[in-house]
Design goal:
Blueprint: E1 4-8, H1 12-24, E2 29-33, H2 36-43, E3 50-54, H3 62-70, E4 80-84, H4 89-98, E5 102-105, H5 113-124
Parallel strand pairs: 1-2, 1-3, 3-4, 4-5
Amino acid sequence: MTVRVLIVDDDDDIRTIAALALRTVGKMTVSSARSASDAFEMLQVQLPDLLLLDVMMPGMDGAAFFSSLKEQPHLAHIPVVFMTARAHGGEIERYLAMGAAGFVAKPFDPMTLAERLRSILRSVSPR
């Protein structure tokens, strides 16, 4: 089964590198959005298996987007993996306490990103 990932990040380079890595190395189906509002529009059309979400974005940041997502019954089940350059303990614990499926530290290794996401997805998927 092909994993569908929606990348939400305001940085064009991050979106491009992550999408290329997930498609090429991970053989995943990838779509991307540059903002929370773009992501919400895309989620009305197709639901991903996993959301890779930047923490710091203009407008609605990752934490606010995550909270809004969890309030919508048809979207609340989508596992969210936060991407952050602030990968210190307190910040990570906060996202996990909110209900995030996991996190990816920036800068990430494009060669291992797909396996990291698959591992997180396996940990949250029913057996």
